[in-house]
Design brief:
Helix content is 20%, strand content 32%. By secondary structure, it is of the alpha/beta class. It has a four-stranded mixed sheet with strand order 1-2-4-3, covered by helices on one side. The N and C termini lie far apart (39 Å).
């Protein structure tokens, strides 16, 4: 069984509200997939670009699911 997985969310953060800016289908899909796997005991890390300097480097979404914001690009 898989115990740990990492995703790269290149488009937008899975934490953004759908319908605002570039947030839409892809971030909803990544979030739902990560949450479902976490609920089944898989440790999930989602790496995404930090769009706002005030966003924390790491957000624990649920016990097995965290989003890691990476400083990249302009």
């Amino acid at each position: 069984m898989i115990s740990r997985v990492a995703y790269l969310s290149l488009h937008t953060s899975p934490l953004l509200q759908p319908g605002l800016g570039d947030a839409g289908g892809m971030n909803v899909y990544i979030h739902e997939l990560a949450q479902t796997m976490a609920d089944r005991g898989v440790a999930v890390d989602v790496f995404t670009r930090r769009d706002d300097p005030s966003v924390p480097a790491e957000v624990l979404v649920s016990p097995n699911y965290r989003v890691i914001h990476v400083d990249a690009g302009p």
